[in-house]
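Progress report, Aim 2. The chain analyzed during this reporting quarter is listed below.
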Amino acid sequence: MNKNLFITVAATIPAVLITPTIAGAAASEVTVTGQNKVNEVLKASIENLPANSIVNGYQWYYVEDGTNKPIPGATTASFTVPVEAAGKTLYVEAITTTNNRYKSATQTINTLDLAITKPIFPNSANYIVPGEAVKASAEVTDKSGAKLKGDQITYSYQWFYKVGDSFTIIDGATNGTYTVPKNALEENMKDIMVKVKAKVGSAMVESDFSEVITISNEPTNTIMNEIKTLLKNDHHYNISNLASFKAEVTALDAKYQALSAPAKANVTNYSVLKQALADVEVIEKLNEKVNKVNDVEVKNLTQYLKEIDDTYNKLDLLQRSLDVDDALYTSIKNILQDPTDINDFKEVRRLNKAIIGLLAYENSFVKYVPTNIQLLQTAVETIEKDIAKLSQNYRPTVQNQSILNDAKQDIKKVEQFIKQFDKLSANNTPSKQVTTAKSIRTAYEKLTYKQLQLVPANFVTRLLEAENAEDLQIENLNTDIANYVGEADDMYPINLTAQTWQSHVTTVNRIINEYKGLTKTSAAKIIGYDRIVTLQKDLKTADKVIKEMDAYKKLSEVAGVASNKLNSSYTNTLKSYNKLTSLQQSLVYNADDFLLNSPNVTVDNGKEPADKAAAETLKATVAKFADVTNFTFDQFEAAVNAATVTYKSLSSPARKYVTNYYLLTAASKDLSGVKSFHKKVQAAREETDATKQAKKIQTIQTAYAKLPANQQHLAKQQYEDLLNNRLEDGTAPDITALNEAIALIIANDQYLVSKEKIMELSTQYNKLSATDKKRITNASLLTAAVSDVKKVESFLKQYEKSFTSNPTAVISAFGKLSSKQMSLVSAEIRKAIIDKEQGLQHSNEKALQLIESINLLLKNGEYIDDLEETVKNIRVEYDSLSASEKSVVKNISKLTQAESDLKKVADVHALYPATEGDEAARKAWQNAYAKLSKKLENLYHKMYPSDL
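Predicted structure tokens for the chain:
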């Protein structure tokens, strides 16, 4: 048979059903499938409709009193039967696109026949306590089999309580949960029950009465009474052995945990049970720890036993009552061990000597006996291992352990210092080596004398080599500079040619570049650097003149060149040459060729002038001006002036025959320049203040160096006369002597001079001018020395103020000084500090004996007899010790603890009632006594036996 075909007619037309032609179909009608019960699904079937019918809608109807009533919302082929349909008749109608309506046969939904169970109380016993809430529930079903849903059922409740032999309603108790009033028993409400009604639609059902629930405090009362039996009194549990007591409290707690929350709240003494459970756990864990003593490593045993003893001592009297017959306490006493005093004391004294033996004293300085960090490390580790083997009580008594700590710190500092050499490599440039060495040197100078003695000699050698890495470079540069600038003031000692020119320029540039790569300290050792820089400039200046002379030479070799052009070239080049200083002229290697090849100038003037002969004589005179070295200044001045007068007396035609007039012009300029220079010289001569004259001479020296060569020659006589006859300044510093004096203040990491001498040198240095300070190449040594002086002076103030009252602090501060700084402290003070330090190292014998006495206050964890008197005597002895001796008594806390325990016991005894029958006082005493530890309880027995 064909299946129904679903098609979409159009976007705005709903889906419809098309009924195909069915051969042999029954009468046309709509059929309904499904059960006629509430909550079942009924489905309309259209298989029997006329062929090709198109169904596009449905409507379900109730038939009531002959009227068909559409069921709201029931417009699909499926219909879930609601509660309201119970007992009603209904049918469905299918509607086609042609508005034909096809109805199903009517059918009646089964009515609801409800059933309900007797109310029950989930998770509840047959009793409840006042204040507890109880919840009732009942199950509702349909006898005809309809599957009811929870939200379709409406419940109502009514609670009842018993009055006499009858039950009456409880006003307002109409909810599923009922909370019993806390005063129910006082109001004689002892039994309750509930009845439930259920309604589904119009159908109703009522349950039978529930079972009766009894309201009672009996469960909590029973548990409370059982808890009471756990105690004999406030300070003792009712116990025969721990195992049975644990079983009892565990079972009792299980009963308690099974109670409801309100019932638990009524157990007002549960804290006793809770405390008992906790106390049992404490005792069991302590027992377990005692049983494991044999498994503990020897090195941990002392601490382990102390923890056991401390834990037991914290137990109060109630907790200790779980230790039946003091079995646990006895076990603890048996495993506690007293310190092996004799052996420990011998070992302490041996270790004290071993520690002191690490140090040696010589020349008022302290150093380590082991000569390197490896040997020192081994010695320290051996001593520390031996200290660790001592009992806990005696480890703190090993004196001078600060020496071990200092040694470890010193080892670490030296290792860190040596580590810095990783940055130093012979493959580095000299400058890099010197820079690295500088940072290493800074660290080296911070090391104390003791630390310095641990530094291997090869590292000191490496440091010195790195610091001097630039020395060969410095030596070579000084040699190169001397070879280039020499001692002469008017001529460079260089044999220059056209072929060697560039190589010399390159060498000079190389010298300057190498200088710039030097460290500041090394650069200060270069002699004549300013002169090599001047040479570099002079080479550039001379090079221009050389090129002009070469150009003139080429021009002179050109055939037919105009004489005036050649003469102009020569004249201009000569002017450039004459402007050069003597040093610059010494660099012009082609000057001789140039000067010996002046152009021949002819004069074609037509008719010869009458004074032609005078002109030619003047020309010969002027020609001598080309070499001023043949003149003194006075001769040169007279000759130039005379030549000038003669030249001015010549006629114009005759002047043309003086073809070298440019020499006279140049000579006049030279004369003028020298006169100007002489004025400066004269001003310096007339200065009567030596310091001011020195400054003027510095200016004149600079000016002289810039004069052209001819002027330098003419001015040389007066210039040298000024230098040779300068005023003597008796207060002027001797730079060389000061520099050498600074260099001699230190050797082998020790200052060789006093603090006062260092400050005297510093005063001299500070008076220098900025220029002179730059000449002090050892300035950094002086700066470091001044800093060390300040630190030492600060230390000496502390020494003066505190050495008597607090020598330990002074000794510590002295140990922090660097080796150099220590050398600035006088030998007398160093010796006083060392003597005091050695004295303190041996001053602990009395303290050791006191430590022994304090340790003997306890034996096997209990205080000795006559504790009070013994403690008083020890306190007197301790108070008589010095501050440094007291610091040795590391177990003083045991004395103060004993004093505190004596007071606690005395305070409890003070509460003991003076008269019989004062129960309040006795109760207060019992409570205080119960808080005493076992150790203090035993002490109380010894001190006040009559109280017990």
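The longest strand covers residues 53-64. The chain has 39 helices and 28 strands. These observations will guide the mutagenesis work planned for the next reporting period.
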